[in-house]
Design brief:
Blueprint lengths: L17 E9 L7 E6 L7 E2 L8 E7 L5 E8 L2 E8 L6 E2 L8 E5 L5 E8 L4 E8 L6 E2 L7 E8 L5 E8 L3 E8 L6 E2 L8 E5 L6 E4 L13 E4 L7 E2 L9 E7 L5 E7 L9 E6 L6 E2 L7 E8 L2
Antiparallel strand pairs: 1-2, 1-24, 2-3, 4-5, 5-6, 6-7, 8-9, 9-10, 10-11, 12-13, 13-14, 14-15, 16-17, 17-18, 18-19, 20-21, 21-22, 22-23
Length: 304
Amino acid sequence: MTRGHRAAPAQATAPGTNGRIAYSRFADATFRHADIVSANPDGTGLRKLTKTPAGTYDFNPDWSPDGTKVAFQRDTPVGGGIDTVNADGSNLRQITFAGFGDQDPAWSPDGTRFAVEHFDLAAGRDGIYTVNIDGGNYAQITQNDTRRENEEPQWSPDGTKLVFQIVSETAGSAIFTVNLDGTDERQLTPYGLDAGHPDWSPDGSLIVVESYTDSPPPGVSTNVFTVRPDGTDLTQITQNEGGEVNSTNPAWAPDGTKIVFAQTPGSRGLGYSDVFTMNADGSGINQVTSSTFWDFRPDWGSQP
């Protein structure tokens, strides 16, 4: 898959009562397109929110703070950007669109802006930006360079900071935080962990991440970790070993007691990914989806 088609990114989870889980699903076994789907936490009530033609991929859903809408990244053969759709699948709206496209949308806690990875063609700059939910008023927060790329921004619950990953050309990936004016950039995880897909807990006390976000070394599994916003107490909460089972794409539940994530090989052997939930300490793993396709990048919304 191309960079825009990675089964990656996350979102700040708004505090509230646990509602539905949205996720991306490759719509056929040849990976020719991907839709946004939602379900109840027990896997019932499956609802397809988008229906894409071949060559169009809907990735990285992010629930609005009030649980009424989902923002997502749409990639097409001619470009991409950010779209939104109501929780019942109605009112599909294109918010931004460009040849390079915006990626990894994350709704601000007050519901007025998105954080995105954006390429400013006119200025020749790219990095992490914020933008109004109507697609206007881009504001640059971080700047990519030739050896480091800033990806997967997520908001702190108080709306004052972003957490994101920096992918180094030579060192791997690490998690950072930054103020909204671009100051006080801080590294939370070592590059050796190759951490990605951060999501801030609703109470602000922890950030959940995955290890080996690009691909693990042979015989090594991807696991879910938590870390405090100051970089202390890095803790592994899933215990996969041997490289066959991999837990990825973690995101917090609105009540802060559980985490939703994707896991391969799922229930049918290698080649599939399903959505699971677990307690915040890694116990009590439950399967949400059981698809013959690839379910990934889940986000847990609040009840409207």
